[in-house]
## 1
Amino acid sequence: MAESTADSDVRTYQVRTYGCQMNVHDSERLTGLLEEAGYVPVAEGEQADVVVFNTCAVRENADNRLYGNLSHLVPVKAGHPGMQIAVGGCLAQKDQGEILAKAPWVDVVFGTHNIGSLPVLLERARIAQEAQVEIKESLEVFPSTLPTKRDSAYAAWVSVSVGCNNTCTFCIVPALRGKEKDRRPGDILGEIQALVDEGVLEITLLGQNVNAYGSEFGDREAFSKLLRACGEIEGLERVRFTSPHPRDFTDDVIAAMADTANVMPQLHMPLQSGSDSVLQRMRRSYRQDRYLGIIERVRAAMPEAAITTDIIVGFPGETDDDFDQTLHVVREARFAGAFTFQYSKRPGTPAATMPDQVSKQIVQERYERLVDVVNDIAWAENRRQEGRILEVLVAEGEGRKDDRTERISGRAPDNRLVHVAVDPSLGVPRPGDVVAAEVTYAAPHHLVADRVLAVRRTRAGDVSERARTPQPAGVMMGMPTLPA
Ligand code: SF4
């Protein structure tokens, strides 16, 4: 962390991230790129020399939020000579030069296909004293070759593909992220091996439509093969993936999940709606029976799997009966949790101009009913965990304490959030360590495990401990010292 430039040539940066995991991972690359170019993260409470917005375009008010935040920076920039503002991500890819028209104090606009250009564009804008806009219509190099600064010492995102070949009528992603491009399996496995060598225990395979992986090079079973190959990597304890699409969720993937020990019993599978007629208008290319069939087969193969989903309420033309169909699927599927959204028009998507837009009042009423049903089931499913012994991977950040018990927090194999008591006789677990503990209480959205059985200190725990320990000047961080 550093003070601003006034007294040094080192320029500080701040990256503000909006939206999905894709953007979270892209921001890890943006910070990696900036640090490779000599920028340093700004200190808490300080004003950065460079502020980068990595934007999302999915929600209706995404634009308002960006331009609101940009206008707040006008007086800040006026008082901070040499300050630069850059806007990237999906909204930049969509609005392009329009961003400069609406916010002429912005210095750089870059798109989703050329995040690697940021440092050069910042330099060019600084030297030329002129704003730079660079948007590419398609991906040139797979961004995984770019330097990355990960947020976590023990967990990492690994992209398997970018873009999407689907055309869901409410979604703007294909227009902004382009057609699906797949990485070569060898590149992916090579990156995973390198991460494990650095102490990473858990990886999440990332793709807009992760289980369609391989469609670009014509191998329909490429994703299940990739999961099985992850099972061969020594030291890789947990494999997760997001987001799959029900249309491409085939039995070979379910078998690979069940057969491969380090693939976690957890599945996030967007439903969006339970009504066949709404799914048809969404152009989701599956129907209620197929979705429930997948859930059934996943449960048969992995009875303890935790399944979560995404649901949109109030899609144009949604009737009371359509909504009842969504509630029916939620009751049948017994989700461990759900991200629930009120439909909002996204200009540029087919759904935005569809007839029979549902009134806000009806959408709100249905949304509240849905959230109640989802929460009741999630809590009931959590209560089934009471008495189970879970292996919890300890996360960064504060645990949930109460007046009697100090706790740390982490994730169970099925990705449930668990607050685990600290038993000093077993040592205080560090982020990246693994704790075996018995679930003693289930809350609606988390578990409490106050009977600790064992604490396993891991290399990831060593790495995260070193990352948090201030190092004497000149010591290199992050690189684990290989055992002599
Ligand atoms: S699958 Fe549909 S919702 Fe998901 S990114 Fe592709 S078009 Fe959008």
## 2
Amino acid sequence: MTLGLRPGVFYRDARLYCLNLLLTYPEACYANCSYCGLRRAREDHGGRPPSFIRVEWPVFSLEEIIGRTRGRLNLIERICVSMTMHPRAYDDTIFLVRHLRKKLGLPVSVLANPSTMEEGSIEDLSRAGADMVSVAIDAATAGLFDRHRGGGVGGPHKWDLYWRTLDEAALILGRNRAGCHLIAGLGETEREMVGAIARVRRLGGRSHLFSFYPEEGSLLAEARPCSASHFRRIQLARFLIDYDMVDAGVMEFDEYGRITGYGLEGDVLDELVRSGTPFMTSGCPGKNRQCACNRPFGDGPPGDIRSFPFAPQEADIRQIRKELATYQETVMEEAFKS
Ligand code: SF4
């Protein structure tokens, strides 16, 4: 829609500031992550393109994408190349980063797939022109990672390799240049998610949050979306940790591992909530904004926005306050039983 390749306007006039490009091969992704509509064993759904983060990913030629982007450099502030699990993925990513940098001059992020990368790959991506590299660890604990991405689904991904790659990215690219995708609602407690966010921050990276939403054709297609209250508390904690306002160690939790204290009291915390900023999409920055990769409605429908692609308004803040204060569910229902 932003490039005029598809008709339509975003709800509440949201704007997209980052082009999210996904590598595409005739064979589906070789991996089999439970929540993903792109996985190799996905059910065919009437020939429509597979969906991922609630949208379809139609295929267009690289040159057409570049041609149309050139005319929209006042709007688009970043490009992201997302790798899938495929033998060609790494070499094609290096080519694309170099080509896009040369043709458009925009900052380029890579959403890396460590399972297809070798020692030194991050250096190569940086030399090719990537200024940000993110790793989609997605699950907050080693057990959930294996259940949703590794042995639990016959998948190739390894928890330790993913963290090693993120560590390498932070070391090579520098502070705030490495990102970690984390999905809330895969069965973790808020304490476990805060633990993962704090680990990313100790490496010098920042976390990009997603609220779990069931994808058609995925193993979790029938699962419940992440609850708003669980996601809101995690969003607020992430903001405080990622912007070094609070050390995760002082946060408080109840017997179910839900956040009951953020280590920040009174007006400062209230002011932050009122600003709405902690509840906006977390992603790679642009030249004029803290987050260019705002993925409008990528993790929740317009009627139930999770990551706000624009500044929340007063009515949104009222709803957010209610959600922050809601502790109805005991423990997160395991979305996917092994
Ligand atoms: S936050 Fe967005 S731009 Fe950054 S790596 Fe993730 S998908 Fe790409």
